[in-house]
Amino acid sequence: MSRVTGRTSRRTDVLRDRGFRGGRIAPHRAMIGLEVGPFLLIDVIVLPLMFALAVFILLDPLMEGWRWIFDVLRQPLGLPGVVATRVVEIGPASVAIPFYTASAVWPTALDLRSGWIVTVVLAAAGMLLRGRFTPFAYFLRALAVIQLTAQVWFTFAPPPFTYALSQYMAGLLVCGVVILLLAPVLVAFTYFIFDFPLWQKLALVIMLLVHLALFLPLQAVVHAWILYRSSLISMPILFLVFGVLLDVFVYVALYGWGMSWRSNSVLDASDRAAPIAPYRAPRMTPPTSHRPVGITPPTGSRAL
Amino acid sequence: MIITLANIGLWICIAVLAVYTLRHYFFTLNRLFGTHRQPYVDVVQADWPLLTVFVPAHNEGRVIRDSLDALLSVDYPVDKLRIVPIDDRSQDDTRPIMEEYAELYPDRIFPFLRDDGIPGKAAALAEAMSDVEGEIYMVFDADYIPGPRLLKQLTAPFFDAEVGAVMGRVVPLNVNKSLLTRLLDLERAGGYQVDQQARMNLRLIPQYGGTVGGVRRIALEQIGGWRIDSLAEDTDLTVRLVMNGWDVVYQNRSECYEEVPETWDMRIRQIKRWAKGHNQTLVRYVAAMISNRRSLPWWQVVDGVLLLGVFLVPLVLLMGWICTITLFYAGYPPQWGRLTVLAISSFNTVGNFAAFFQVATASRLDGSRERNRMLPFLLLGFLVSTFSVARASLSRASWLRGRPVEWQKTERYRTTRATKRPGTGGQGNVS
Amino acid sequence: MSPDIAFLLVLAATLAWMAIPFVPALLELLRPQDASPLNAVGQDSGQLTYFATSFAERMKSEGMLGTSVPPRLTDGSNVVVHNMVSPVAASRVPIADVVVLADDTPLPAGLHVLRECLARRTFHGGANSSYRAVLGQRDVQLAEGSSVLRWIHANGRLTAAPGTRLLGRATSDREILLDVDVQFDRLDAPMVRVGGGGTLETPILPVSAYMPFVPTKAVALAPGYWRVEGDLEIPPDTSVAGSIIVRGKVVVGEGARVEGSIKAHDTMHIKSRAVVIGALSARGRIVIEDGARLSGPVISESSIIVGASVIGVANKRTTVTAPRVQLRSGATVYGAVMSADGGETLK
């Protein structure tokens, strides 16, 4: 069965896949698909380029905004130093990435001991959680393993550590800026290909960009404070688990929500009702007359 | 040296992950916009061949009645259908139930009862099939509930003389039981609605899954029958059929209910079994598949290799993270690009490595858009699966030539029996 | 404010901001809106008369099959009765009511019925009319230029005049007779025939009447099962016993007989008077010339052209299926003709 095709001018063709109450009759889900429309290329190429360009243009004010957030929060958080900037080349643009000049120290003996306790607690929780908490158990075990690497490193490796807090923070934000630039492209290839109305497509991208624009600096501030207070021993776990992975996590959540929106086109035809209760075969009633027979065991098994 | 190795290792991991991600993106695009190949789904009238339906069972007392009731209700010529439930040393009431049905329907149900021989589903099927004549063999696991039209739909492709095996779509029945079942429902949707159908569209290698499907007897005999020492006898069969020039067909329209694992423990056992079986098949056939390229189109060879390697991908992802950690400590943090690929690859499903966008696409095509909100939870499922598959992939069973395999089955939870057929609802009411 | 408190506030704000996109996910987890299994029953798949049967049952329950017809259905839809005493008037305005034809009175031309029609006797449609669906309890005769949008079923014979468009499903319990220039999607009847004349049914001779032919370049997969690399032409008046997979084009020569199924990776050409007792399937086009006899099914991933030949037998219905199907005058199919992208009848 062919998928719903483009409309012709014939009235009958317009009516053929309309329900008698006016709703749209869609093909079975096994057969349904989308048409390549004239706007697909525009949506997938032009729109993300426009958004990327917009982000480029707005980078300077955005960095100013981030700098302001860092400025406002520095003193209440007790972070020494100032908010500095470093100019980083990202593609054709020079971006003034703000960061704290505070530094994180090499872990002291107390920091190491605390770290070991945290590692043990994570591992123990990871081993003890069971049943429906199994995924969280695995997550805690993963955290424990990563923290263990940090414990081992900082126990046996000599200072200094390769990364300073300022460098780390700047690196995190550079990552974030690149994600901001590429987010529209990612959305284009995974969301714009669908038949959502334009306003929904724009809404998803804008929500994602706005969310990341605020989340990224807050994330950096939180990381900075933890590093400053707990020492460099927290850096591996922050970088590997609570950095880019969180940003992608946010994107997937928004994307999932966006993909649950109604599109008012063939994939959301009115008769595509919600799934119903599952099929149950009728209970078989035995025939009224039958001759009782024993089971004839086929060759290959023992007779009963 | 370590830095160089870690760097190279990370690039290799990224490359593998990128290949699989692009592959699945391509499948998604094809499923959305490509021409659907379902040439056999409209065969509604025919001189239907003799069909034997096997239902292998080991301690399936909770579910076997529903399966047999469904098979007895199917729309298929009664004189052309034999139902062979296979009991292999069950300790519950599976065998008495089979005996009961055989007494009630002596001309339709022919139990095959095993008390000795090599244990395991593949061995049971091999023994039962060697004893039964017929053109087409269908296999349904004991917890599956075929609909009335399913057998004809699954038999229709065999009118194409080149078709060696057919696979239908598996639809989870117990979706709303837990977070896990909902995640597995998403995984199945991505795997069947998009992945399998795209491979069918592109004439790649749809996989025969060992249930909700069938095999042509001549083809089975020609390739040497079932491998009884394989944990993934279905994957093994798929590869051997394709390498011997038979087609494996996937029919998206032919849907059947199954029960997915409801607990994480069961899921871990299931995924480890699949991983070991798949890796066994990889070891056995990857070289032969690559060297078979003269008789197979190159795109099938590529897809076949990627298919065989799919359960190595979680291991690759873990290696990627290990390399990342190593480089980080060595003072060379991976650039944002590689980190982002690793991060994105952590939102996938295992089994077919369907990326999150593939899963979301499948749900939209199914008309179940609202369950897409659950996408972020894929990370949890993938976390569990990744470590489980990695452990399985590092076990000896994955790589050694196997010894015969015991029954490995998913625990059953069904507590209610079949009742009346529900109202038709959905598409059935629309004219 | 101490730095620790300040940090907790910042952390709380960050987590809250981060959590916002996850709210829909958490709501779906805690209060599922979409957690039921898909409807995998497939009640109507493979049964083309499903809608007609459902409609008939509904009409029966609504009392439409009795001696008096209620003016309204239970869902509020109006019912219009058409008979000799009160015929439906010709009108360009579409009729949004269910139409019950109480007798054989023909409908006027140019009607557009947006709902179903139930014909208690023979249905005589008017020219250039369109109907959403038609259920005929006896014969159904569609006049020139008619269109049926979703389904049509005749308990008796269904005939379609030139210019008819049978969209969706067209079924009959007896036979479907199509004139030329008829478009269709899916047909199913004990017999489907194009054109008024009969069809030559080539006699099926015993195997001994043919010269046996074994394909060269064939690899035997099993007794009576071959694979051929490249093209295959079965010479005229020869016979082949067994199924063949051809990785190229297939030509079954005039008067040849094949007892087995044939698969072609390319096109397939069945010449006149050829007999194939088995299924035909091809990735490319299948052309069936006049006088051929096939048991079917016939499956193409491209198109099928059926000449004045016979496919299927009266007591063993079969299927002809392809994205596009052309039935030429004299074509006879015992069973179903399925054309996903549209079929047509030609001279």
Kindly describe this structure.
- The complex is a heterotrimer of chains A (304), B (431) and C (347).
- With 304 residues, chain A is mainly α.
- In chain A, 55% of the residues lie in helices and 5% in strands.
- Chain A has helices at 11-15, 40-57, 59-74, 109-128, 134-156, 165-192, 198-230, 235-241, 244-259, and strands spanning 83-90, 93-100.
- Chain A has a two-stranded antiparallel sheet with strand order 1-2.
- In chain A, a hairpin with a 2-residue loop joins strand 1 (83-90) and strand 2 (93-100).
- The radius of gyration of chain A is 29 Å and the shape is flat.
- Chain B has a domain at 38-264: Spore Coat Polysaccharide Biosynthesis Protein SpsA, Chain A, CATH 3.90.550.10.
- With 347 residues, chain C is mainly beta.
- Helices cover 11% and strands 42% of the residues of chain C.
- Chain C has a 31-stranded mixed sheet that branches.
- The longest helix of chain C is centred in the N-terminal third of the chain and has 17 residues, at 3-19.
- In chain C, 50% of the residues are buried.
- Classes of the chains: A mainly alpha (304), B alpha/beta (431), C mainly beta (347).
- Chains in contact: A-B, A-C, B-C.
- At the A-B interface, helix 5, helix 6, helix 8 and helix 9 of A face helix 1, helix 2, helix 3, strand 3 and helix 4 of B.
